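Lab notebook, bench 4. Still working through the backlog of constructs that have no structural model yet. Next entry is a single chain of 427 residues. Request: give me the structure tokens for it.
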Amino acid sequence: MSVFTRSRTTTTLGGIALIGASALVLAGCAGGGGTGGEEPNESAGPAEEMTLTVGTALPQTGNLAFLGPPEEAGVAYAQSLIEEYAETTGLSVELVWGDSGDLDNKAYETEVPRILAEDPAAIIGAASSGVSLQFIDQVIGEGTILFSPANTSDQFTTYEDNGLYFRTAPSDVLQGEVHGNFVAEQGHQTLGLIVLNDAYGTGLAQYITEAFEGAGGEVVAAPTYNQGDTSFDAQISEVLAADPDAISVISFDEAKTILPALMDRGFDPNNLYLVDGNMASYKDDFPAGLLEGAKGTYPGPTPDQVQEFIDGLDAFVEESGDEPLKDYTYAPESFDALNLIALAALAAQSTDPADIAEKLIEVSGGSGDGEKCESFAACADIILAGDVADYDGVSSPVTFDEVGDPTEGFINIYQYGADNTYTPFEG
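Model written out:
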């Protein structure tokens, strides 16, 4: 089940009633985009040779470390396909890998300066909105692009970023609207929230509350906790004392402690709702059946919508000798991030960050006058022929607005089974 929006300023396709139909709107363009290399276009002449340096500040450690492998794999897979076409385009990509960590271990404090010392045109990261906010000024202060595959806080929409911040994940305005309306559509009249006290958690809680109460419900408790906390008894007790029909947990890896504690207190998982920060496979973490019936929202396409991409990514990971991926959260968005940066560099015929930033809106389709294409190779051919490319990505058609926000995207709804893994919600 998914919701698709063409603009963050429009109402989400009639809410939950049109979810099933809206899933079909992008199935064709999201399902096949950017899934592999293509045979070079013999008529496209080679361009001037350029080496594009891109850093990554993604979570190798910390409370979002489960997102690191799929995000880094998405970036590496995109690099491999760009390199396959380097003889035609003249463009090669060098990656500088780095760890964003989290607000507790603060790995970014040493990692980001190390990455910037390599003079990258862009840094892909962080996953956490709160972490990106810790170093965005440092990155853009160096005249470098910061491009996140997973930041969803609404703070970035109005952030003074000198036109150097972009993201492929839709804002929490959309996820909050879908989540709150979905909980209400499930028949719940009252809702309790347990909220991570950072830009991501409090922002998403605000939009969930607005949507749920706008649908006639009432949020009866919304205690917060701070990153680094290890005990959540006070928050759980406060929410349960309010006796809500449903509980939404807005957290990161802390869910591994919060969710079993809620179930131990007798809460019914059928009335439990998660969000993208904690939508993960808990197969190896919890006893069988602990989360059966729980539901959650996650920005991005379903695996079925991007199966061709997943097959290609799995084959790439296996060939690279890396551990198989357990899930694919934000892998498509990370793949699209590097493709867009590379296409903008190709269109600008420059690896200067300012030149790339000027072309990112154009190659995403934001200028509205490009030719549709669904892979780096296809888009590169259009650019080399002297035309404007409009990259429709794996995660969505993207289409940046003037502040670097995607104006097109999916919010999918999932349900957990007895094995504590999730599949698309069938209704």
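Notes after review: The radius of gyration is 21 Å. The mean pLDDT is 89. Flag for follow-up if needed.
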